[in-house]
Amino acid sequence: MRKAVQLDANGHRKFGIRDSLAYAAGDFGCNMSFALKGTMAIFWTQFMRMDSILYAVLLIVVQIWDAINDPLIGSIVDADKRKYKRNKFLSYIFFGSIGLIVGGALCFIPWRGAPDIAKVIIYVCGYVLWDAFYTIANVPYGSLLSLISSEPADRASLSAWRSVGSLAGNIVPMVILPFLIFDDNNNIIGERVFFVALLMGILGFIAFQFMIRNTEIRVEKSVRCNEDQPKFNVLRAMSNFLRNRPAVGATVAAMGMFLGMQGAATAVHVLFQSYFANARISGVVQLFAMIPIFLFTPLARKMVVKYGKKELSVVGSICSLVACVAMLVLPITPDMSGLIIYILCQLVNSLGMGIYSTVSWALMGDAIDYNEWKHGVREEGVTYSLHSFFRKLAQGIGPALSLVIMVALGYVEANEGNQVFEVALRMRYLVAALYTMSAALQFVGLGLIYNLDKKSLARMNAELGAKRIQSDVG
Fold it and tell me: Rounded to the nearest 10 degrees, how much is the dihedral formed by the CA atoms of 107, 112, 114, 115?
């Protein structure tokens, strides 16, 4: 006999592991497309032979599209008052997931002999199309967390499981891809990247369908339009975002993470290509460094209830900062002993990142509630899309800035995986410096700007709950 579905007081399916797995599947789908972004600079500068400075400039140019794309799509979602069969966010996610089947592959069309202008067109058009579909799926997906449940512990669980989905979506390309795309001389094989990207798009689409079919919307009040509310105004929504201290703090932390991590990604490839002289093991090393994240995730829900999200994330940022400074000053030599020191530093850094990443999305869910608490309106789409925009801006600035610094330090794309030792040594210090900058910005965002500690969060939730009950009665 089929087990009866347990319902809550409002007639919704009770929150459980099904919700967490479904939400994790959504970020798995996103990262099936996004995870290859770290390979983009190596693909275009080494395989496609695009000048590194030109690539850095183009990377900044396409982020201008993000400046229009993310807030625009977020405002469209918020302003959309049409009735959907299930939920408008889920409908947008479905459409975006279709485009992502091929979106990622468009960024890796392996036409090495194309004229320079054709390469520029292929890169810009491919990136813009991929980014548009990614935003259509990702912005509503991030906004869903505040609608699945209003309970802090449930949101912590969703955020933790989102991190699991993100990790799973990153692990596949992280571990397997280096063995597929690098040859025996540590040079990239561009044709294989294209087919892997296409396969990952298909896997991402399947994951999104699982999420859509298993997501229960419980916070109905947040998506209904009150007739007495003023007409939606994008500029006012942006102003509210900038005055939303938790949203700004969480965004600064996320920008710090991506400025360092995405910026270091290209230098890390060169580090393993030319310093440790083994590009294929880079994914295995990064996977090993993620062990603390897996160990912490099951504990996240209980620890959030006991200590609070802000408090935990600050501790995590301090762990990362200590590990990254150690990576900068310890003797990481190009042999096994140096590699072991590098891995140990990454383990501690990963522990800090694991603590932060498991609650990072719950922090934004609370920031959306904070906007309603302080300004009287809910703007899930714009709040999350602006957060997403600044994250993406960091994802563009980080690699672009890193490439410019790499060239200044002697990196030559034509040498591929055979940079001279002096350049490889500089990459070793550049990687550590970028990671240190990342951890420092995370601490600033979480420790100095984000202001919803456990006590403040309880007060906000109590006042919002009373306000909503009064509104329903009225």
Answer: 100
User: In the chain, pLDDT over 70 holds for what percent of residues?
Assistant: 93
Query: Which of the residue ranges 240-244, 372-376, 435-439 has the most confident prediction, judged by mean pLDDT?
Result: 435-439
Q: How far are the Cα atoms of 311, 348, 349, 355, 452 from residue 290, in angstroms, in the given order?
A: 22, 10, 9, 12, 28
Burial (0-12, 13-18, 19+ Cβ within 10 Å), 318? middle
Report yes or no: 207 and 67 within 8 Å, Cβ to Cβ: no
> What angle (nearest 5°) sits at the alpha carbon of residue 99, between those of residues 97 and 101?
75
Q: Say if residues 292 and 347 touch (Cβ distance below 8 Å).
A: yes
Pick from 304, 218, 234: nearest CA to 73: 234
pLDDT digits (tens, 9 = 90+) for 395-425: 778 888 888 999 999 988 877 778 899 999 9
Mean pLDDT of 111-128: 93
Task: At 454, give phi and psi (nearest 5°).
Answer: -60, -45
Q: Give the pLDDT mean for 370-391.
A: 78
Q: Are 386 and 71 in contact (CB under 8 A)?
A: yes
* Backbone φ, ψ for residue 331 (5° rounding): -80, 85
Q: Residue type for 124, please?
A: V
| Torsion angle of the four alpha carbons 26, 394, 371, 442, in this order, in degrees rounded to the nearest 10 | 100
pLDDT over 70 (residue 230):
no
**Res 55: pLDDT:** 92
How many C-beta atoms lie closer than 10 Å to residue 179's C-beta? Answer: 12
C-alpha closest to that of 268 among 428, 417, 416, 413: 428
- Averaged pLDDT, 130-151: 85
Q: What is the CATH T-level fold of the domain 17-220+230-473, as seen in this structure?
A: Growth Hormone; Chain: A; (1.20.1250)
